[in-house]
Amino acid sequence: MKACNQCGKCCTKYGGSGLSVSAEEVQTWETFNPEVRDYVRKGEIWFHPSTGTQLEHCPWLVKLPDQPIFQCEIYLDRPNDCRYYPTTVTEMVRDECEMIEAIDITNLHKAQQKLDTLMTDSRPPVHKSSYDRSN
After folding, report:
1. What is the per-residue pLDDT across 51-85, written as a single tens digit (0 to 9) for each?
2. pTM assigned to the model
3. Does residue 129 register a pLDDT over 70?
């Protein structure tokens, strides 16, 4: 499994509707980053602050000029839905994640272990992969 290359596929695919935030996340934004809080409606995110309409893409994702990579402008304050993604190798395959290598497909359990190690700093310490729960 390769390190993330910031291709933006996950953010462009999931950066619109369907993401939720906890009350704790909203409170943190309200305190430290109220501009992000303005994009929250009823526990869901990325609604236009003035019109209240759902945005098609995350307002904080920026494609770097003349480069094939994206950057999250709120990376350190990103929602947990973003922070914890990807959770499974199967999810990565489905989403055509560029971190996946051919060898990962031949041993999903080993690939899941690699992913869990890579994501250690992003996930809560109690996270258990779906492979661990089924064994």
Report:
1. 999 998 899 999 999 998 999 999 999 999 888 88
2. 0.76
3. no
Rg (the chain; Cα; Å): 16
Neighbour-count burial of 71, counting CB atoms closer than 10 A to its CB (0-12 exposed, 13-18 middle, 19+ buried): middle
Domain boundaries defined on the chain: 9-125
**Residues 95, 98, 103, 108, CA torsion sign:** negative
Quick check: helix, strand or coil at residue 15? Answer: coil
> Position 21: which residue type?
V
| CB contact at 8 A, 31 and 94 | no
The secondary structure element, H or E, covering residue 44 is: strand 44-45
Helices vs. strands in the chain: H and E counts, helices first: 8, 4
47 bridge partner residues: 54
Max CA separation in the chain (angstroms): 49
Q: Which of the four pLDDT bands, split at 50, 70 and 90, describes residue 135?
A: very low
State how far the alpha carbon of 82 is from the alpha carbons of 45, 63, 66, 104, 109, in Å.
Answer: 11, 17, 25, 22, 23
Q: Which tokens hold the place of 107?
A: 């041993």
